[in-house]
Amino acid sequence: MKVRSPAHANCVVCSSLNEHGLGLSFKSLPDGSVEATFDCNQAFEGYRNVLHGGITSTLLDGAMTNCMFAHGIHAVTAELNIRFLHPVACCLSVTVRAWITRSSSKLHLLKAEISQNDQIMATATGKFVRIEEQPDPDSTGVETATTSKKVSPGLSVLRSS
User: Fold this and answer.
1) What range defines the domain where residue 111 resides?
2) Residue 27 domain-assigned (yes or no)
3) Number of structural domains, the chain?
4) E strand or H helix at 108, and its extent?
């Protein structure tokens, strides 16, 4: 089962429509987590033969976002903490997995990890704030102005009005 929100139609992590994206396809697991595999192409290298830390962070954040979608929750990242445990080798695939650790009506705490060759390479914790799903302006055929809505102190979400 592919997990993704229509509001994420061009997401750099999980969209098959974004020609410059990573193209991950997340699946829901029976324990409530989501998982995807990513082939660490050398095009995403930071140091020689090592996946760039920004890509590692992007994979972890994307997994947590897709975990929210799998639970029917539309949320944005409010805080993301990454622990880089080992260099992620390019040209070997990784598995990225995320799960919810705690939820309230508006705030959701998640964890994620990247593993390669059965070793955990990086972990993340994230705080996500629930938002209303935004309609796709292209699907209505009507252009809309963009405004900013406060969802948390210091966090604004762009929305169509």
Assistant:
1) 6-133
2) yes
3) 1
4) strand 107-116
